[in-house]
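Feature request disguised as a bug report, sorry. It would help if multi-protein outputs had a clear separator. Right now it looks like this:
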Amino acid sequence: DTLGELYSWYKIEEVAKRTRFIVVGRRNIQPEVLHTFAARVRQDFDGQLIDAGYTGMDISSTLIRQRAAQGASLCGMVDSAVENYIKEHGLYENGTLS
């Protein structure tokens, strides 16, 4: 879902020059739509896009932040070390990145 939003990113041309984008599909996005966006990004940003060839779990960063802010378990959503880091550092308390 973020692939289609790249063109709205601040200084996307500069970001694209410094990085490679890795695409992971989601079940709610049709493969044809994903491939169309990927082809456009490859053309516009000189091929700096890697298709991970994986359709991951349907989990968004927004959902992870919301659950963390509520103190809910993130088991199965992120690695346990990541969950521990989020809790230990109080990230996402009050719904924001602290």
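(second protein starts here, but nothing in the output says so)
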Amino acid sequence: MNIPNTDSVRYAFTGAQALALELRHEFITPEHLLSTLLQQTYFQNAMTESGYNDVEFSMRLTKYLNRDDIECVPPEREYKPEISNQFTKMLQYAYMSVNNSGAEKLDVPHVVEGMLHLKDSWAC
């Protein structure tokens, strides 16, 4: 079954890939996606309404993504980041959520729900 993505999800996926490239990370992770979601106004509003300080959270996430123990691809090497196992698991949960809800498109709430199933992920 082919489930289309909303514009917000496409933007977030594209942004996650761009961030992984910018940081020279070998894998696109849920944390890259979360960082991109935090740039979307309605996601910031949802965070604020849930009692989170989106600016502080974004700073903590940036610090996490810039850790020294994350392996980076050397600058002289061209590459395309791959999707991490956690990102794949997140998408599996998200698509199950779409199927169970009867929605026609994968949207940000489905992706966030998938992210929240990743108990061993910082993004969760």
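Even a blank line would do. Unrelated, but nice: Residues 44 and 55 are 9 Å apart (CA to CA).
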